[in-house]
Amino acid sequence: MNKIAVLTSGGDSPGMNAAVRAVVRAGYDRGMEVYGVIRGYNGLMNGDLVPLEPRSVSDIIHRGGTILYSARSPKFKTEEGLQLAVDTCRKAEIEGLVVIGGDGSFRGARDLSLQGIPCVGLPGTIDNDIACCEYTIGYDTCLNTIVDMVDRVRDTSESHDRCTVVEVMGRSAGYLALYAGIAVGATSVLIPEIPHDFQRDVIDRMKKILQTGKSHFIIMVAEGVGGVEEMARQIERETGVESRAVILGHVQRGGSPTARDRVLASQMGSYAVRLLSDGIGNRVVAVQQEQIVDYDIFEALQMKKSVNPADYRIAYEISI
Ligand code: ADP
Ligand code: F6P
User: Do residue 165 and residue 108 come from a single domain?
Assistant: First the structure.
């Protein structure tokens, strides 16, 4: 392949820029022309392409967000939208596409691949919910951001003998809540993947721990579980501990990527270009046991990821 394009799609994540940089420079190293698609599949449907060369991606390795912008593009899921995207690739003579995003974006990449546009997906999402991949680009940064913010909440929680119920992102994935919960020593962790009993796992637990002399608490709740305001009210009513709810929100998705995310994004970006330059498409790049590997997109989309129950137990076992 001589001409490839790269886009970022779905919810942005810290490290997407480092991945774009890697794709552009690895492509250049192989003598390829690399184009950036603006605003994900929207840009592909509208023909919004810009040529990128090594200097176009200077000074972005440390920046959160994505210089290519991102979008959720419902129209792309229609036959008409897909055809417009294919037409853009054909007209611009794009021979391969790197799609940086989550599993929704990979479904789009699968559809494009079926239309004869070879795509390689790079997992870019804070949720870490890509089944074939142990760590997605942006997850480590987001986890560290959450830990930093909850450490701050903990200070004031402690000063006021309060319970703070913290909601973190993850509409259907609890990785951020579980591992941030372990990292900050949350008393309870509530995630969508594992059913909970609020009375047993939060109220009774807090009452028992109160008797040991602890007077301030953090309860970590994934967005997909929700209801933090009501939880705080119930905790205050039933335990007598003054409570507050804090929804961290989109602040979690921004900021400078950690070294780990920058390295992962660089490795994955380079790997994706290597696949395309070897004429290989329809793949998802992943990390497994510290190795960069790749999977067939169809296979990757069928795989299921489950939360490690041993880690869930640890979260409860040692936060007493
Ligand atoms: P993420 O990639 O982070 O999971 P989304 O689920 O919003 O984010 O998906 C990003 C974009 O990918 C969507 O706006 C849409 O254009 C495309 N997409 C999502 N799901 C599908 C699907 N089932 N088929 C084709 N394209 C899809
Ligand atoms: O992309 C992941 C994510 O941040 C989820 O954790 C969250 O549920 C969702 O995106 C929020 O999406 P939006 O930015 O569209 O509000």
Answer: no
